[in-house]
Amino acid sequence: MKFLIQIASNASVTVEDQIVGSIPYGYVVLIGMEDADTEEIADKMIKKMLGLRIFRDENGKTNLSLDQVSGSLLLISQFTLYADCKKGNRPSFTRSGSAEYAEKMYHYIIERCKESGADVRTGVFGAEMKVSFTNEGPFTVMLDSAELF
Questions:
Q1: DSSP per-residue codes, 75-139
Q2: At 50, which CATH number?
Q3: What whole-number distance in Å separates Cα of residue 1 and Cα of residue 117?
Q4: How far apart are CA 125 and CA 107, in angstroms?
Q5: Distance of alpha carbon 8 from alpha carbon 115, whole angstroms
Q6: Listed range (93-102, 128-137, 138-147) with the worst mean pLDDT
Q7: Cβ atoms 73, 113 nearer than 8 A
Q8: CA 29/CA 78 separation, integer angstroms
Q9: Which residues are the active-site residues?
Q10: Sheet containing 119-122: which strands, arranged edge to edge?
Q11: What CA–CA distance (Å, rounded) separates 35 from 58?
């Protein structure tokens, strides 16, 4: 499982010219899955993401977590995080989870984040989406379950 986390302000996701999710401040999180990922892995990834202290405090140090800055989450499914570019020039996505399994896990992650008390907005699984936001810093972090657990 991979979470590409970006600190953002005024973020939104649009499907068919309609804004389906937006946040004023917080994380834009692109989420990729493979079929080997489990709910246990998702729970650990969520805990790590919500606990990250990557927002700046009054001294400019990255020392605050999402809840400490009253931030929101914009969660977007992104199978291309598992692109394999080793051979040729056309990426392979064979490591990405099957659509059915990835959608189930995506909704699991959404529900678990909501249960944590986070303000959660989402994209639409499998849809052609346009994501707009201002990346603050810019600050981007990749959480990869293969490297964390």
A1: EEE-GGGG-B-SSSSS-B-TTSPPHHHHHHHHHHHHHHHHHTT-EEEE--TTS-EEEEEEEEEEE
A2: 3.50.80.10
A3: 22
A4: 9
A5: 22
A6: 93-102
A7: yes
A8: 9
A9: 78-80
A10: 119-122, 72-77, 18-32, 2-15, 129-144
A11: 42
Give the tokens for residue 91: 């990426």
Q: Which residue has the tokens 């079929």?
A: 35
**Partners of 64 in the beta sheet?**
55
| Domain total of the chain | 1
Q: What is the pTM of this model?
A: 0.94
DSSP states of 27-72: EEEEEE--TT--HHHHHHHHHHHHH---EE-TTS-EEE-TGGGT-E
Residue reference for tokens 């995080």: 81
- Residue 37: what residue type? D
In order of 5, 6, 18, 70, the CA distances from 57 in angstroms are 19, 17, 35, 13
For 10-55, what is each residue's pLDDT tens digit?
999 999 999 999 999 999 999 999 999 999 999 999 999 999 999 9
Which residue range(s) make up the domain with 77? 2-148
